[in-house]
Amino acid sequence: MTELMTVTRPLAWTRIRRILLSRLVLALVAIAPLAACQTRPAQLAQDDDAAWYIGAKPDKPFDIPLVDTGRLDPKYRRQQVSYNGPEQPGTILVDIDKRQLMLVQADGTAMQYGVGVGKAGFSWKGEARVGRKGVWPDWSPTATMVSLNPDLPRTRKGGLDNPLGARALYLYQGNRDILFRIHGTNEPWSIGEQMSSGCVRMLNEDIADLYERVPVGTRVLVKRSGKYRA
């Protein structure tokens, strides 16, 4: 499991945590108007956003906020599970209905992660590949998003307030970017929910883990209603 950044002095840790969590709360407020891969229904807004965070993992150029996974349903926590399906090791499998992503391993197991998925009418299914990868990636709205909301910013630099989070895997079919991503999120309570604009979102610490495990070219299968294809 991901290791926490160690802080030996309780007072120093309290001060660092207060600064970190204050930054996160301000960042969450700042991104509220954005509508790309990130939608925050009022009923899911938390009374205490900062309570979700317990520390940080050193990363560049920003540390990765770590979530209290005890707040998640156990089935959405990162874990190694048995796998006896037909897909080859190294394949990413996303089950929209179960809100889970698996990376098939070579030893009859899979790494399983909880995910948030697209709201009704936005979820995509099919086969793709990881066409490129990004670390603290910049965000840009699609043409459709701009047509629906012309006031959207045309780009947003990577960071704690970015809807794509700490990492992103960009899905391609052939040489075409299909505009769906597997990416981090700064809304950890959305894991297990159906509320994005179609992308697959993961805890920042989980997408960072997956990012290190998969190369560009990795096969991705996204299943909905028990099928990868219509």
TrEMBL record:
This is L,D-TPase catalytic domain-containing protein. GO terms for biological process: cell wall organization; peptidoglycan-protein cross-linking; regulation of cell shape. One of its GO terms (cellular component) is extracellular region. It comes from Methylobacterium tardum. Keywords: Cell shape, Cell wall biogenesis/degradation, Glycosyltransferase, Hydrolase, Peptidoglycan synthesis, Signal, Transferase. Belongs to the YkuD family. It comes from the Bacteria. One of its GO terms (molecular function) is peptidoglycan L,D-transpeptidase activity. Pathway: Cell wall biogenesis; peptidoglycan biosynthesis. PROSITE patterns: LD_TPASE. Residues 1-35 form the signal peptide. It holds the Pfam family YkuD.
